Here is the input.
Amino acid sequence: MLKTEEEKTAAMRECDFELTLNERQLCDVELLMQGGFSPLNGYMCEENYNSVVNDLKLKDGLIFSLVSVIVFLTFAVQLVCLSIYYLSTLDCSVSFLSLSAVLY
Here is the structure.
């Protein structure tokens, strides 16, 4: 967690893009950040995604039936792999997302 304005500003400078979240997307980010999708601590990697779709289990064998398709599906055309995104709402900063893969 970034604690100072300097840390926040430095992190924002590292971002390649900014995405403005709608209420649904913000809810999913908040649930991820607060453990609501436990045992996930972030968005699913491709291996976990495929494992849950095919076997209803994470790649480590834990049963997990909720496929957390990236909440940014509405932005799918714009997403760029290996990029860092600054996530915000219309009135506040939310989080940062490092994107390693886009599943289509």
In short: The CA atoms of residues 40 and 89 lie 23 Å apart. The longest helix spans residues 23-34.
